[in-house]
Design a protein that fits this description.
mainly alpha; single chain
Length: 87
Amino acid sequence: MDTVVKEANEQHMAPWLGLLKQHAIKNTPLSPFLHKQLLMHNHLFVDGTGIEAAGFKYAVPEMTEETLREAVQLLIAQGIFPPVLAG
């Protein structure tokens, strides 16, 4: 697991930091850095039937390209994500 996390971080951190520098983003809560503890002994899937049975309704019931683009546009507008959306 150490090797997987190290390789993933090496592959993603340098380009991310380059984008932040290129677009003069000095402070952002977003990061592709992966902590090993997040992958170990944690379920990566949540079944939402229990919360739905209690009456919870999702504001965005299904992830689509459009909803993802809207979320990224919001982050770009807030100045915490590089403006790199294409099309």
